[in-house]
Amino acid sequence: MSADKELTFWDHLDELRKVLIRILVVWFVLAVGYFVAMPWLFDRVILAPCNNDFIFYDLLRSIGEKFDLHDEFFTQEFHVKLVNINLAAPFLIHMSTAFWMSVVTAAPYLFYEVWRFISPALYPNEIRGVRKAMAIGAVMFFVGVLLGYFMVYPLTLRFLSTYQLSELIENQISLNSYIDNFMMLNLCMGAAFELPLVAWLLSLLGLVNKAFLRKYRRHAIVVIVILAAVITPTGDPFTLSVVAIPLYLLYELSILMIKNKDVEAD
């Protein structure tokens, strides 16, 4: 047993307080930095999917040209102009967006602080497993956020902003609506990519195992397709596949991450 394990309850509480203070300081510094840089970030990052020259739209057009595809999905010229109808919205969104961006980018540091806090109480074999889980969790979260930003959200935005219930109704996208959907979808994609880590943790608690996940694989595929359809209700197979395939691969990765405890059959 190390000296760290001999700490009293109050010593552990004091260490936890220090961890929380360090995390809050990092979040605050990042939030201030994002607040200062927000006008530039809004034009070139957050509002980038509103413009026709966004990288993913260029990719779709190049695919259409290469394979001689004339469907509007590959050739559409796209531009969204946002409107603001709330006097305080620009300032409040300025602050809230800076905060949420600081939370997202501070995720690796959060994982690091959690690791530092719990590692003294772990045995060597547990340390290797938890360290691996923390690293995978941080990487997968950012992979999900990037996939949401570069592919899923642009497809969703392009479909929903051009969808018309009636020709008598003109679509005008408000700033609040755009930001709410932007943050929600990207964070949801980041959270969805934590599925392998969640499955691994549940396996450690004995709640799931390889046999269970394999047995309900077909059910999982149905749920994944439904979830993908809800996230990107565009109706075309390409958009559905962009979300469904990564989610299904995450399910398979969850099975691979769980160690065999018994001899199991498929």
Describe this structure in words.
The chain has helices spanning 9-46, 55-66, 72-75, 89-105, 107-118, 124-162, 175-192, 195-204, 210-215, 217-231, 237-257; strands at 82-83, 173-174. It is mainly alpha-helical and 266 residues long. A two-stranded parallel sheet has the order 1-2. The radius of gyration is 22 Å and the shape is flat. 17% of the residues are buried.
> What Rg is obtained from the alpha carbons, in whole angstroms?
22 Å
Instruction: Give the assembly state of these chains.
Output: single chain
Low-pLDDT regions: 1-5
By helix and strand content, what is the structural category? mainly alpha
**Number of folding domains?**
1
User: Outline, from the CA principal axes?
Assistant: flat
Order of helices and strands: HHHEHHHEHHHHH
Query: How many strand elements?
Result: 2
Helix content: over 70%
- Report the average pLDDT across residues: 84
Question: What is the distance, rounded to the nearest whole angstrom, between the alpha carbons of the first and last residues?
Answer: 41 Å
Main β-sheet description: 2 strands, parallel
Number of helices: 11
Taking strands numbered 1, 2, ... along the chain, how are they ordered across the largest sheet?
1-2
Strand content: under 5%
